[in-house]
Design goal:
The complex is a heterodimer of chains A (184) and B (152). Chain A is 52% helix and 17% strand. Chain A has 184 residues and is an alpha+beta fold. Among the domains of chain A are: 31 residues; 77 residues, Gyrase A, domain 2, CATH 3.30.1360. The relative contact order of chain A is 0.10. Chain B is an alpha+beta fold. The chains are: A alpha+beta (184), B alpha+beta (152). At the A-B interface, helix 2, helix 3, helix 4, helix 6 and strand 3 of A face helix 1, helix 2, helix 3 and strand 1 of B. Strand 3 of chain A pairs antiparallel with strand 1 of chain B, so a sheet runs across the interface.
Chain lengths: 184, 152
């Protein structure tokens, strides 16, 4: 059987119009795989970009609030606050400040600094009521102290006292973290 | 003729599909473009804010330091030994009892009283505060009652 091109064209002509919709469908399918089809598609990237935008909106709000706080205080006020806190919680163990404070609250007879955390002091006290007042006064002293041991008897009280101190903390920059509220 | 009807049907549907497709593509591209613009704008604002914050970094460090130290102060106050309040609770119960000795760490104490009834009353009032209160010894010398106890 001979191949006659004219006959073939005549035979195919009724279906030639199909080329247009078929081609359109193929282009659409290929385009959709780029737009929504895989993990790297435009739609996925839109989702990721949206997440990034939401994160950045939150970060911007944090930074704006932080800048607001930073601008609302002065260096002098902050230095003063740190000094004030250092009276309660010194940067290092201030034994002599503690001893002179302890002298003011009662009849201090002796003290012993073991070099450890605690110092031992001995007071002359008339009775347990006087001792109670003494302990209450010690609780109000600066630097802060904790009376961890009390041995009372024969009008004497031997106290073991922890004196509070804490060196400055090493702080790492936390750019994306909100600033804590300044304590009252 | 069937050829004509298929032909016209095909040509009527395809442009519609193309229009929907083009609208979808344009919308997605527009969203993508908007996001790009928004992202650049936000990044710029964040960079500017960071720059300003960096200039005040020493102030930020002080604020964080104050915050941390205040937390330490509060923790010390909350957790420090409550010796004064314990003695207060021992003193407040009765003025007919004299506390002769008291050891805060071990909880050992000795009390004297002129009557056994007062001593009994004192111990009864102590029990709700120290549920495992232990009466170690009670002696009488002359008219004085002496008890040694362990507060638990």
């Amino acid at each position: 059987m001979d191949f006659d091109i004219d006959t073939q064209i005549k035979l195919a002509r009724p279906y030639l119009w199909l080329a247009y919709p078929l081609l359109t469908v193929i282009i659409i399918i290929i385009s959709f795989s780029y737009l929504i089809g895989n993990s790297n598609s435009l739609l996925t990237r839109i989702g990721q970009a949206n997440q990034k935008i939401q994160t950045n909106i939150k970060l911007k709000a944090i930074l704006e609030a932080k800048l607001g706080v930073l601008k609302s205080v002065t260096d002098d006020v902050l230095t003063e606050r740190l000094k004030e806190q250092a009276q309660f919680l010194p940067l290092e163990r201030e034994i002599w400040t503690a001893i002179s404070g302890l002298r003011t609250v009662g009849d201090l007879k002796s003290f012993y600094n073991s070099g450890n955390q605690a110092i031992t002091v001995e007071y002359k006290v008339e009775n347990s009521l006087v001792l109670q007042k003494l302990l209450e006064k010690i609780d109000e002293l600066k630097p802060l102290m904790s009376v961890t041991g009390v041995s009372y008897g024969a009008k004497k009280a031997r106290l073991e006292i922890d004196v509070a101190f804490e060196p400055l903390a090493k702080l790492n920059p936390e750019l994306d973290k909100p600033l804590p509220n300044l304590p009252k | 003729m069937p050829e004509k009807s298929y032909h016209s049907k095909g040509f009527a549907t395809v442009p519609l599909i193309i229009v929907v497709f083009v609208v979808s593509v344009v919308s997605i591209l527009a969203i993508s473009f908007y996001q790009g613009t928004k992202d650049r704008e936000l990044t710029g604002q964040i960079d500017r804010l960071n720059l300003e914050i960096n200039k005040l970094s020493s102030r930020e460090a002080r604020i964080r330091q104050i915050y941390l130290r205040q937390k330490s102060i509060s923790k010390f106050l909350d957790t420090r030994a409550k010796s004064a309040s314990q003695l207060n609770s021992l003193n407040i119960i009765s003025d007919k009892i004299v506390i002769d000795t008291w050891d805060f760490k071990s909880g050992k104490m000795s009390v004297t009283s002129s009557s056994s009834a007062d001593l009994q009353d004192y111990l009864q009032q102590l029990r709700p505060k120290f549920t495992n209160l232990q009466l170690d010894e009670t002696t009488q010398k002359g008219g004085t009652w002496i008890s040694t106890l362990t507060l638990k």
